[in-house]
Each structure stands twice: as C-alpha cells, then as structure tokens.
Amino acid sequence: MTPVISKEELSEYLAEVFPQVWSQFEIMEMDGRHTVMKLKVNDRHIRPGGTVSGPAMFGLADVSAYVATLAVVGRKALAVTTSCSIDFMRKPEAGKDLIAHAELLKHGKALTVTDVRLRSEGSDDLVARASLTYSVPPVKS
C-alpha cells in the first residue's frame, strides 16, 4: 500500500483537527503499511505505582491505527474506531517514552484493520499489543 499523504502533511493535519492532544504524539515513520509512533510520556500519563497508565497506552494504540488508516485513505477525520482489543503484558519502563509499531493488515472499502505493538523506548519487550478496526466513510460520488 502506498501512502496518499506524507507524514509531514498528516502531522500538520492532525495538529489542526486535534490541537488539544496532538502535541503528545510524533509520527516517526510511515510507509503505507507500517507506522511507527511515539507517545511523549509526561506526568499526566503516569498512574499510581509510577508507570504509564492503561488509558495512555490505549490512546497511543488508537492514534497509531488512525495514522496508519489516514496514511492510505487521506485526510478523513471522520474515520472512526469500530473495534479494539488490547492486551497489557507488562509495566512500561518508568520515565521512558512509548513507541508503537503499527502494521496495517487490511485496507478495504469500508474498514481498515491494524495490529499495534507497544514498547518502552529502547526496549525489545512488548508492554501491550492491540488489534484495531477503523470504519472509513464512503467516497461520495
């Protein structure tokens, strides 16, 4: 699959439509099938016990699948999450950003399916794995 938008254009677009949260994320790589994202972890992502919260990890997985979807469908803010399953495997390392490796498994007319694997930056150990399905609005003729 070939991207229909560059990572720079997509990052600018997401900063425009999601200004309240986009600064937390960075698109590191994007090629139409694989996307690498970073969550810039800060105090608001930390839960009691000094680790990154589950909602923050879910957010990174969801945003990564959204970016993977928009990479192949373009600027469609109305693409929405229709399904998510996430497995939390271990505590992320304290004080480290989270890295998501997203693989777009299916790009159909109405749905995309993405597998996302989360790790603490610099670690090979998975902290979570998610499968997400996005519904893509139909093209108006």
Short description:
With 141 residues, the protein is α+β, with helices and mostly antiparallel strands. The protein has helices at residues 7-17, 54-73, and strands spanning 25-30, 34-39, 46-47, 51-52, 80-88, 98-107, 111-120, 126-135. It has one domain: Hotdog Thioesterase (Thiol Ester Dehydrase, Chain A, Roll).
Would you kindly provide a written description of the structure presented here, covering whatever features stand out?
- Helices cover 22% and strands 39% of the residues.
- The chain has 141 residues and is an alpha+beta fold.
- The chain has one domain (7-135): Roll (Thiol Ester Dehydrase, Chain A).
- The longest helix has 20 residues, at 54-73.
What order do the helices and strands come in, and which of them pair?
Elements lengths: L6 H11 L7 E6 L3 E6 L6 E2 L3 E2 L1 H20 L6 E9 L9 E10 L3 E10 L5 E10 L6
Antiparallel strand pairs: 1-2, 2-6, 3-4, 5-8, 6-7, 7-8
GO molecular function, one term: fatty acyl-CoA hydrolase activity
Family: Belongs to the thioesterase PaaI family.
Keywords: Hydrolase
CATH architecture: Roll
Compute the number of strand runs: 8
Outline: globular
Number of H- or I-type helical stretches:
2
Number of domains: 1
Using the coordinates above, name the CATH class. Answer: Alpha Beta
